[in-house]
Structures are given as structure tokens and as C-alpha cells.
């Protein structure tokens, strides 16, 4: 800020408060809805202030679910989401950090080709090749399994590039010192490279956890058994299945529960989250 | 390039193996299948497949539904991009003026990034629900009869708002970073040269922000085209009357619900070509051309 | 402890460019050898070949009795101190020192003993549990040397270890390295581009230029009898005056001489000296001053005590045996 203009400062605050309200509006409405009983929606419009049934609604969803919807209790779906998000995040990090190590620290025939194979995955988002990929997973008998939920999504050009970038900034002298100190490639990887990439790994983990948790199309397709429903994919089934009169208070409670874990991750680890976002786009 | 390398020949392949195997099995092979399938046609019973050359593509080109989908996608992507980037830029400029409250406002604005597109869709669907939603009620007060289940434009508005809402945090963070990277001395120099706040924004800030803006333009178009499947599926399912049937949704719908594999594969190939172009643009031009 | 022998060593890069050629050096056990030359002269490449960080294209390198051309760096029984120290940033000083020993399976008690000795010698005991980024430049430099000492290697290899330090610290650390090396009597090869550092540290120094050895000798030999015009201009500060031989009349036996050299301190001011010098600038150094000027078309510099009288025109004389003559084609010394 250069000169002091109280009017502009006021305007900026106003814009921001309005912005924060708009951004928060849908979540507030959902939260309010999730605290009322089923009859609150009969009057025609949704109430704007929280009702008395918060504990009742949430404990019902977590424990029992809505029997008519064919979805399991939300607790089970959240557990599935957690497994999927963790497998995707950890899987992507592990295979990417290994490939980046191979590409940066070794010279071997067809290195360029290997690099291009990884690069090309950038251009093939799952939405684009959804039918044949589903076919492959079905042929491998991976439908309705945690492996089927996560493994097809863990190849990652972005993460590989990120680690490649990180490794390239690590001074050569460090590698040379380690060689003179008698560290072979895997020892160097474990003792030097991994510890030095710690914050990058953490930042990437935050982004990938959210990515994994928020998957929708993929779990929707490959889970037909309700045992493997994830919460983000399950919520739609719930809203659909309660035909005629959706039980809005319960659907919204589920929506809140689907948001809470990733939102907590973003807010609690804001610095890592921002670092991860910026780095993965480089 | 590293000066120091290890000389092992087998080890790098072992390290690459997991990534390469997954890439091959779940990316390259399916993509090749899509390309192959796009030149084939199955008969009605799925018993015989014949090679039909480019016929699937020709049919797409002559299909009013597909052309409609292209148009819908373009309108949708541009609307989402403009709405989300416009709002985010405004918010970022406001936060950039702040000294002490930057962090608080940032925290209050970034969390929607964590909300899944499908959940964002559900939330806005609820708000715009014609019978009990709050927005139709408010719009009714000023005489507008909202109904996204019947009105094409209402449906498009709904999916645009839901998709743009989710993307605000992302754009905001990058705009804010871009603004904070502009040296204060430049704006101070302009102020000494007699430029007021508005002039400074258009003469100094906005031009220097152009690399960020262009980068976000590409990212937002990619987001709107490929990552909004959840929003569409949770709200309009492409309707009413194809009004929100964007390309990614149509690929899925024709392939899984319609079981029209040849057409779906041809659509996949078109989409791959689009991603290819967008990726090339991102890598070629984002870094160099619009930078100062 | 060991001698090191370089036998006709050369380096040719993959593209065919030659970095070093025909280098023969015998380094005695316990000797402090300095490789000095301008940047790009191949001195670092040579050191890295001894370390095993660069492959050896020609000739052989022996450490002790063993040809080490194909031996891994870790197995050459050497330790290296890098220009940027190359301390592992995520490990404490203690872990940095111990890492190489641990990798060799040295028993814990022995590691502790050696780390203790090294930290006593270098006075880094108080910092043992700190991370490198919490240390000053000089302390990091000490830790880098500590990492070399604990290994008790046959040879120390130093790659411009002082060039990241400020001038004052550089002088202090230079002396420390020298004392340390005398105390441990470990064969050392030290690379620098700084001729003063080379002069002060070396038992013998090797002047390199364009990948070739220009001269090997003790600092005083090299200073007093530079083997070529290049060495003459590179070693010594202020640099030797080099004047085209044709500009100097009445020179004895100079048929092949291209340049005549004379050190600034070998020119003295006398009332009837044969050389006339027009003074152009004076730099005060405290105890003495540098006087720059010209004689004919040639620029020359002389050093004078700071209390010597100055005038715009000086007459200079010299002892005939203070002249150095260099061949007009090869630049080599002509005697």
C-alpha cells in the first residue's frame, strides 16, 4: 500500500467480507440443514439458523446410514475414502520419488523414452479414457477392491517432475561427498535424498490426499458393492435413491462429513498446502 | 543435468518399474484401445466388430448432439473461467492491500479447494432447489421463476456457479502470489510519477500480472473441461435437453449408459487431442511468451 | 599415509574436448602439493580424477603402490574438502563427521573416539549437535575439514576450500590448514586459483595452464625462476613487469627473447638509472607503495618503501641477473 486512503481500505474490507460470505454460503446452508429434523423442510424454504438435531442426525449417519438408499453407514464410507486417499497419496509419492531418482541420478539406454512415457500421462486424464480403463480394471478382476480404487490412479507425471526439480537443485558436491563417504545409490537415496525432500513430500502429500479423497467418477464406476463405496461417490447415490422426498437433513449431514477431513487438512496445513499447489504447477 | 551419477544399469529400471508398469497398463494401453476402438464399430448385439475407418469421427461431426456438446463445453468453460478468475482477482487485490489481516482472509478463502466437485455440486443444487432452495425463494421475490430442471439457461447457470465457486480458492492463491511478487518499488515509482491507485493497477499491476493470468486461463479451461464431471453428475446430469452435456460427461454417458463404444472412443480421441494441445500451450507459452 | 603418483594422466571428455594432458607428478608421503592456475586450466579436473569423481582417460594414478584408476572413490582411502563444504544439511555436525565411518562399519566406540579427536583439533566441540545451517562460514569450513580428518585417510584433497570465505577469515583459515597438515603429516593435494594461497600453503606447487603443467617447484623456485612467461605473470603480486624485448636496448644474449621480465621489487630508484619512468598512479599499501607508470610504450609497476621520495619522473636501475628472458615463440624461459 502506497498512500493512505481510508476509503479504499474500507472498500477492500467490504469486498473481502462479502467474498468470504459468498464462499461460505453454501456450506452454511448445508450445515444448517443438517441440524434440523425432516419436517423442517415441509414449510417451503430452508431455515437459516441451526436447529436442535445436530447430534441426532450425525450419529445416525455415521452409525447406521439411510437404509432405503442402499448405501452403507457414512462411517464405513469415510473409512473407504480414507484408505483410498492414503493409498493414492502414498502410492503416487513412492513411485514418483523412485522414478525421479532413476531419471536424475542414472544414465541408461532409453532414459529419454522412459521419461516421455511418464510425461504422456499428463495428457491422459482418467475422464478421457474412462471406458477402456474400466475395461482393463475389470479384466484384471480389480473391481470392488481397494487396489482397483487406488492403483490405476497412482501414476503421476506431475509428482515425478516435482521430485526431479527438487533433486536437480541438490548440489552435486553432496552426492560426491556421499560417494567418498562410501554411500552407494540406495544408501544415498535413503540417507541424503529423502531427508532433504521431506518438506516437498509433505506438501505433495497434502495436495494428493485431497485429490484422492475427492475422486468421484472412478469410485462411482468401479464400486458396485456398497462395501467399497467412498463418501464422495456415495453421497450422490444417497441423494438419488431417496426418491420422491429426499431426506435433505441427512444428505447435507453426509455432505458436511465428506468435506470435513480435506478441509481440515487444508486449513491446518495451509503453508504446506500452498507450497504443494505452487510446486505441482511448475 | 547432474555431473555426478551412479553407474548401475539395472537399478534405474527397477526404480522405474512401478511407475512404468502402471503407466503402461492403466494409461497407455487403454489410450491405445480407445484409439483402436475409434476406428471400429460393433453391431447391435456386440458380436461382430468391423473396421470402419474414420466413420465414427464423421458421424460425430454430423451429429447435432455432439456439436451441441462442443458448444455447451465452450460456453461452460469460458463462463467458469471468467467468473472464477474475475472474482478471485478482485479478492486477491483486496487482500494484497491488507497488512495485518492477509493471513486470516487467506485462510477464510482457500478452504473450498478441499471440497470435492461432486460435493460442491450437491451444495449448490440444494441452494437452488426449486421447491425448498433459498435462491429460488429470493429470486421469486424479485419476480424470477427459477427452475433448473426445466430451464436450459438456469441449468447452465447452476453448473457454472458451482464449478466457479470451487475454483475461486485456487485462482485467488495464484493471483495473490503473483501480486506479491511485483516489487513494491515499481508501484511506488508509479505513485511518484503521479499515477493514482486505479491507473497504477492498469499501467503497472495488470501487465506485470499477465504471466499469472495466462497460466490461470489455461488451468481454468482444463479444469472446466475435465475436472467438473462431478459437478455435472451431481446436479443436472447433462440435462435438461442436453443443455449441460459437456464433452467429458458425454464420453461417459455414451460409453457406459448408451453402450455406444465406437462413438465414445472417437470422443475420447478428440478429447486426448484437446488435452495435447492445451498441454503444449501450457509448456510452450506459459513460461516464456507472456513474461517480462 | 601414502605417496601419490600421476603418470602421464589425461582427460578427454565425451565430446572429444581435452581438459588435461600428459600430467606427471610425484607427490611424496606427507607432502603438501598445491595445484594452481586460472579457471578452466584443468586443476579441479585433475583433483577429481585423483578422487575418483572423474574417470581417467589416459595414464594412471597411483595412491601408495596401488593403481586406483578403476577404484571407487570410497575405496581410494582419500578424503575431500569441497568449495561449498558439501555438508549434509539435515544431519548434525556429529552425524556429518560420523557418516563416512558408519558406512564403513567402523565400531561405535571408535567413531566416537575419532570424532572426539577431530573436534578437539578443530575446536568444534561446542557445535557437535548443531545443524550446518546454524554455523558460520568459518565453522562450516572446520566441520568440512573435520569430516576429512576423522577418516584418517592416506590423502586429503582440497578443492578451493577457502574461496567461499571473506578475505580476513581466508587468511586465518589458510594458516590453520597449514598447521594442521604439518601436524598430521597427511599427504595433501590442494587446488586454488589464488596464487597467494598457493605460495603460502605449498611445499611444492604445480602451475597449470590449458590442461598442461607449466612448472613444478617449491614456491620460491617458482617465484625466482618462473619457467615461462605465463608463470611469471601468474605468480607474484604485484605481477612481474613483462616488456617486449625489442623495446629494451642493449640486452645481452637476447636473440630469441620475446619478452623481458623483471619483478617490481627488483627495480630501484637511482639518480642516474638507465630507465626513465613517467609516474601515472600511486597505490598506498601502508608499509610500501606501488608506483605505476610507463617507460616508452611499456607500462611498468615498481614497489617502493612508503617513505621513499616521489616525483613525476623517476630514473630506475636494476641488477642484470634480476632479468628474466622468455622465448618469443614458446614463452619458455631462456637462459
TrEMBL record, chain A:
InterPro entries: MetI-like (IPR000515), MetI-like_sf (IPR035906)
Lineage: superkingdom: Bacteria
Gene3D superfamilies: MetI-like
This protein's GO CC annotations: plasma membrane
SUPFAM superfamilies: MetI-like
Transmembrane segments: 12-33, 82-106, 113-131, 143-163, 192-213, 248-269
Keyword list, A-Z: Cell inner membrane, Cell membrane, Membrane, Transmembrane, Transmembrane helix, Transport
Locations listed in the record: Cell inner membrane; Cell membrane
Record GO biological process: transmembrane transport
Membrane disposition: Multi-pass membrane protein
Residue ranges annotated for the ABC transmembrane type-1 domain, each copy included: 78-269
Subunit structure and binding partners: The complex is composed of two ATP-binding proteins (UgpC), two transmembrane proteins (UgpA and UgpE) and a solute-binding protein (UgpB).
Sequence similarity: Belongs to the binding-protein-dependent transport system permease family.
Function: Part of the ABC transporter complex UgpBAEC involved in sn-glycerol-3-phosphate (G3P) import. Probably responsible for the translocation of the substrate across the membrane.
Protein name (database record): sn-glycerol-3-phosphate transport system permease protein UgpE
TrEMBL record, chain B:
A single GO BP: transmembrane transport
Domain ABC transmembrane type-1 intervals: 70-282
Keywords from the named record: Cell inner membrane, Cell membrane, Membrane, Transmembrane, Transmembrane helix, Transport
The organism's place on the tree of life at top rank: Bacteria
Annotated compartments: Cell inner membrane; Cell membrane
Membrane topology: Multi-pass membrane protein
Any matching Pfam family: BPD_transp_1
Predominant cellular place of this UniProt entry's protein: membrane
Annotated GO CC locations: plasma membrane
Membrane-spanning segments: 70-95, 107-127, 206-226, 265-286
Listed PANTHER family: BLL4140 PROTEIN, SN-GLYCEROL-3-PHOSPHATE TRANSPORT SYSTEM PERMEASE PROTEIN UGPA
Subunit architecture: The complex is composed of two ATP-binding proteins (UgpC), two transmembrane proteins (UgpA and UgpE) and a solute-binding protein (UgpB).
Membership in a protein family: Belongs to the binding-protein-dependent transport system permease family.
Function: Part of the ABC transporter complex UgpBAEC involved in sn-glycerol-3-phosphate (G3P) import. Probably responsible for the translocation of the substrate across the membrane.
Protein name stated in the entry: sn-glycerol-3-phosphate transport system permease protein UgpA
This protein's encoding gene: ugpA
From TrEMBL, chain C:
Keyword hit for ATP-binding: yes
InterPro entries: AAA+_ATPase, ABC_transporter-like_ATP-bd, ABC_transporter-like_CS, ABC_transpr_MalK-like, ABC_transpr_MalK/UgpC-like, Mo/tungstate-bd_C_term_dom, NA-bd_OB-fold, P-loop_NTPase
GO terms under biological process: carbohydrate transport; glycerol-3-phosphate transmembrane transport; glycerophosphodiester transmembrane transport
GO CC terms: ATP-binding cassette (ABC) transporter complex, substrate-binding subunit-containing
A GO term for molecular function: ABC-type transporter activity
Domain ABC transporter as annotated: residue spans: 4-235
UniProt KW Cell inner membrane keyword: yes
Pfam annotation, one family: ABC_tran
Gene3D superfamilies: 2.40.50.100, Nucleic acid-binding proteins, P-loop containing nucleotide triphosphate hydrolases
Highest rank taxon of the organism: Bacteria
Protein keywords: ATP-binding, Cell inner membrane, Cell membrane, Membrane, Nucleotide-binding, Sugar transport, Translocase, Transport
CDD domains xrefs: ABC_MalK_N
Family indicated by similarity: Belongs to the ABC transporter superfamily.
Protein name, per record: sn-glycerol-3-phosphate import ATP-binding protein UgpC
Native source species: Paracoccus hibiscisoli
